[in-house]
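Module 6 notes. Inverse folding takes a fixed backbone as the condition and produces residue identities as the prediction. Think of it as a translation problem where the source language is geometry and the target language is the twenty amino acids. Below is one complete input and output pair. Work through it position by position during the lab.
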């Protein structure tokens, strides 16, 4: 939802910025287009500037030659009217222009045109009137422009208030539009996020987005049916394979212990027994991983002291018979001795066992395995480390992506370690924890299950057993 809101905000901000950029471009284009006209028509050659210059150059004998040349260069004619309206001096005046003017004539052309020539007038101290006539179609004049002074005083306030109101309305429309978009698209985005995490939830949305909501709902239903079918298939296979595997293990064990069988036969029976047990463990891991993935595995949570769990597991593993090529130690930090985890003890023990078996499978020539338990100010960490062959960076990336469980099984069922790592990660996530694996070729492996001290992890809680 936040990302969608940020996306909409960025799009609108881009649109607003684009509008501002267009306005600036228009202003620049206007300035470039009218710059020459502005300087020529409203600079030194502007009508009132020319009137002032001509009035300064006017004497009783006439006008200076330089000023007359300037007027002629621009096609301007000039005349001087006395206070009574008689023309006393003229320069390039049109032939049809009258020589005498009444006060009414002067009042009319002083605000507009004389014989369609735009004219501009300048009053002299003795009551005479200097008139400059510009070429036709050079200027247009407003002959009836008048404005209310009170209206002019109110105009800036009105513009400021109108601008503020327009901005407020635009911002309100933006907020309402964004809210409506988020309200309509929020459930769809949430449903898509749930689909990406393996969850499925139907949508009931009407309106313009009904088709999209329907597509998401159909995808959710298909995903739910697919997940249920997958879980049912895995559960069925796991159930059906237990009986034949138990028979294989039982017969292989009897053959391995039969004194009348030859040494090679007993050795092969032992291999069959071990591999059958690996297949059994693999099927159990696959079934458990499927249940954890689809939240079908209820957790039997209770406070468990992790140091006691590690010691019990190590004792059980050694009593079951650990190959002489492997050695094991337990390293529990003093301040982690009494750390307890609200967890499913069986699943945590299964995670530790998978990590140990991972070290054993990857190091067929033997290695030293260390079970450890540590406590930081914010987390409890337990895990398994070995000094074996380690993993390549590519293998570590495969573990991190969770794609390792898709590997094909080889002759030694090496697939089990991949599924086992994925199962360990799922067990950690089910307890709000995480799994981190550190390794390098030839430098061993260190796998750490980390749980926060807040929430499911507590300290100095007596074991409930």
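Target side of the pair, the amino acids:
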């Amino acid at each position: 939802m936040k990302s969608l809101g940020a996306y909409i905000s960025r799009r609108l901000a881009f649109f607003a910025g684009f509008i501002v950029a267009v306005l600036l471009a228009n202003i620049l284009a206007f300035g470039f287009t009218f710059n020459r006209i502005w300087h020529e028509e409203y600079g030194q050659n502007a009508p009132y500037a020319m009137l002032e210059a001509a009035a300064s150059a006017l004497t009783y004998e006439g006008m200076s030659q330089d000023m007359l040349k300037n007027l002629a260069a621009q096609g301007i004619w000039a005349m001087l009217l006395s206070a009574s309206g008689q023309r006393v001096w003229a320069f390039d005046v049109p032939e049809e222009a009258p020589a005498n003017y009444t006060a009414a004539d002067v009042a009319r052309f002083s605000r507009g045109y004389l014989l369609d020539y735009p004219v501009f007038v300048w009053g002299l101290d003795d009551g005479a009137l200097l008139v400059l006539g510009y070429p036709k179609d050079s200027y247009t004049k407003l002959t009836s422009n008048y404005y209310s002074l009170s209206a002019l005083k109110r105009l800036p306030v009105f513009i400021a208030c109108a601008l503020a109101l327009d901005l407020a309305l635009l911002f309100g429309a933006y907020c309402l539009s964004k809210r409506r978009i988020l309200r309509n698209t929020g459930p769809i985005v949430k449903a898509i996020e749930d689909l990406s995490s393996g969850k499925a939830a139907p949508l009931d949305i009407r309106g313009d987005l009904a088709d999209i909501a329907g597509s998401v709902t159909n995808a959710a239903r298909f995903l739910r049916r697919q997940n249920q079918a997958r879980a049912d298939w895995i559960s069925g296979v796991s159930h059906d394979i237990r009986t034949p595997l138990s028979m294989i293990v039982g017969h292989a064990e009897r053959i391995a212990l039969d004194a009348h069988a030859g040494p090679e036969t007993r050795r092969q029976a032992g291999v069959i027994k071990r591999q059958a047990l690996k297949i059994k463990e693999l099927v159990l891991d696959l079934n458990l991983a499927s249940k954890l993935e689809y939240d079908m595995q209820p957790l039997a949570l209770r406070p468990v002291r992790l140091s006691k769990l590690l010691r019990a597991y190590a004792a059980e593993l050694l009593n079951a018979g650990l190959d002489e090529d492997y050695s094991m130690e337990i390293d529990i930090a003093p301040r982690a001795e009494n750390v307890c985890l609200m967890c499913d003890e069986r699943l945590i023990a299964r995670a530790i066992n998978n990590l140990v078996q991972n070290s054993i499978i990857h190091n067929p020539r033997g290695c030293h395995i260390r079970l450890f338990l540590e406590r930081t100010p914010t987390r409890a960490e337990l895990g398994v480390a070995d000094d074996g062959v380690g993993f390549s960076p590519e293998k570590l990336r495969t573990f991190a992506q969770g794609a390792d469980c898709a590997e094909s099984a080889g002759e030694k069922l090496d697939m089990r370690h991949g599924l086992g790592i994925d199962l360990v990660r799922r067990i950690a996530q089910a307890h709000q924890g995480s799994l981190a694996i550190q390794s390098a070729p030839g430098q061993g492996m260190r796998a750490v299950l980390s749980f926060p001290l807040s929430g499911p992890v507590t300290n100095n809680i007596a074991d409930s057993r």
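Reference fact for the lab report: The longest strand covers residues 367-375.
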